[in-house]
Task: inverse folding
């Protein structure tokens, strides 16, 4: 199974030093949830929310597809991962090279 299909169907992806998950966020305290990509950093034992905008879909399935497309752009180097903490991005990008896109 390729990584995009695995991420979409399983909701997570294991890399060497990170775990990537798809989730929903209700940050704005309303009933409308927005798709998010979260990343667990095994080295620092800490979760990070990627700040890259994921377009909101009309359905849950469309939300997941949009999140996978954003992550694919990050993997391809077309978009930089937006972490709130310094130093994480460089290690994360290094691990993404193993996806073989």
Result:
């Amino acid at each position: 199974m390729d990584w995009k299909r695995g991420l979409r169907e399983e909701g997570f992806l294991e890399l060497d030093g990170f775990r990537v998950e798809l989730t929903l966020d209700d940050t704005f305290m309303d009933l409308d949830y927005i798709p998010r990509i979260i990343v667990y950093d095994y080295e620092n034992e800490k979760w990070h929310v990627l700040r890259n905008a994921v377009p909101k879909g009309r359905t849950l399935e469309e939300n997941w597809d949009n999140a996978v497309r954003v992550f694919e752009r990050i993997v391809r180097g077309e978009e930089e991962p937006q972490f709130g903490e310094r130093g994480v991005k460089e290690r994360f990008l290094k691990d993404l090279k193993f996806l073989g896109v």
